[in-house]
Design goal:
Protein name: D-alanine--D-alanine ligase
CATH topology of the largest domain: D-amino Acid Aminotransferase, Chain A, domain 1
Structural class: alpha+beta
Pathway: Cell wall biogenesis; peptidoglycan biosynthesis
Low-confidence stretches: 230-236
Number of helices: 10
Catalytic activity: 2 D-alanine + ATP = D-alanyl-D-alanine + ADP + phosphate + H(+)
Radius of gyration: 20 Å
Strand content: 25-35%
CATH class of the largest domain: Alpha Beta
Helix content: 25-40%
Function: Cell wall formation.
Shape: globular
Main location: cytoplasm
Mean pLDDT: 91
Number of strands: 18
Order of helices and strands: EHEEEEEEHHHEEHEEHEEEEHEHEEHH
């Protein structure tokens, strides 16, 4: 008998548009010989499944079930592709934990911690050979922040929402007079903001996942952007960024990066597939951790698909592995 899988998408933030695109790709590549797949849209006060004819069926939040005609549909598991809140920050994971429904992504605690860039950096910076940029974590109620930042950190700076994703609200600041506008943009997305010193280096993004009893680090993708940094447009608009998979690294760099990435995955107690962004500093080759995405994009231009194909695996087999892992 085929397992019933809920493919959850939507969300409460600006990342919902990316989540919808990701869900289309996942839906197209799931093995329908193994699974009955029901796409479930999750928005504030509106959770529903939509039939092929466009009819909406509400989700019963008491047990996360659907009633289709005379049939009540309960789910064996959840494929979570909901970026941002509540799918990536632990809220949805906690809900499924209470209902004893397994899911493909990290648990509630890991999801909540890794959504906060500042807290994540504090946890991983003890890993050997891993470095983090000097930074300040700001809260909305903080005062005189511009003077504090310019006193403690060196320009240029990256200013970004501490709990955001997809580079929404993120800015690069080169001059002191640009800082306040960058802070305002980031605070429009979140009540906490992370300000980091710029690291001059080659930028990479790398996927890692656990399936069939082992953790696999995928080939890294090197990001060569025509823009100043890997922002929302660079991530999701075709032609803006050159993405080289596998990225151009020496054997020593590949070995060191893979060891560090596996340790990050372990130390943060990750599950399923995550994507980690990092720099290799130009002058020294040091590994600088940027951030982790616990529900990485699966759009047509996303990086995980490129990396899976680079190891000779089909996207369908990759998704099947993630689903089967949650039943072990």
């Amino acid at each position: 008998m085929r397992k019933k899988i809920a493919l959850v998408t939507g969300g409460f933030t600006g990342e919902s548009v990316v989540s919808l695109k990701s869900a289309l790709v996942v839906e197209k590549n799931l093995n329908l010989e193994l699974y009955d797949v029901y796409k479930v849209f999750i928005y504030p006060n509106l959770w529903y499944h939509e039939s092929g004819s466009g009819e909406r069926f509400p989700v019963d939040l008491n047990d996360f079930s659907l009633t289709l005609g005379k049939d009540k549909i309960t789910f064996d598991g959840v494929f979570n592709i909901l970026h941002g809140s509540p799918g990536e920050d632990g809220k949805l994971a906690g809900y499924f934990d209470m209902l004893n429904i397994p899911y493909t992504t990290c648990n509630a605690l890991t999801s909540a911690i890794t959504m906060n860039k500042g807290y994540t950096k504090a946890i991983v910076q003890g890993i050997p050979d891993l470095f983090v940029a000097r930074s300040i974590q700001l809260f909305r109620q903080d005062g005189d922040t511009v003077d504090q930042i310019l006193k403690e950190l060196r320009l240029p700076l990256f200013v970004k929402p501490n709990n955001g994703g997809s580079s929404i609200g993120m800015s690069k600041v080169k001059e002191p007079n640009e800082l306040q506008a960058a802070l305002d943009s980031a605070f429009a997305e979140d009540s906490q903001v992370l300000v980091e010193e710029f690291v001059s280096g080659r930028e990479f993004s790398i996927g890692v996942y656990h399936a069939k009893g082992k953790t696999t680090v995928l080939p890294a993708t090197e990001i060569v952007s025509s823009k100043e940094f890997f922002d929302f447009e660079a991530k999701y608009a075709a032609g803006v960024t050159e993405e080289i998979t596998p990225g151009r690294m020496s054997e020593e760099e590949v070995s060191r990066v893979n060891r560090i990435i596996a340790q990050v995955y372990l130390k943060l107690n990750c599950n399923g597939a995550v994507r980690i962004d990092y720099f290799l500093e130009h002058e020294t080759g040091k590994f600088y951790f940027i951030e982790i995405n616990t529900v990485p994009g699966q759009t047509e231009t996303s990086l995980i698909s490129q990396q899976v194909k680079a190891i000779g695996m089909s996207i369908q087999d990759f998704y099947t592995g993630l689903i089967e892992e949650m039943f072990l």
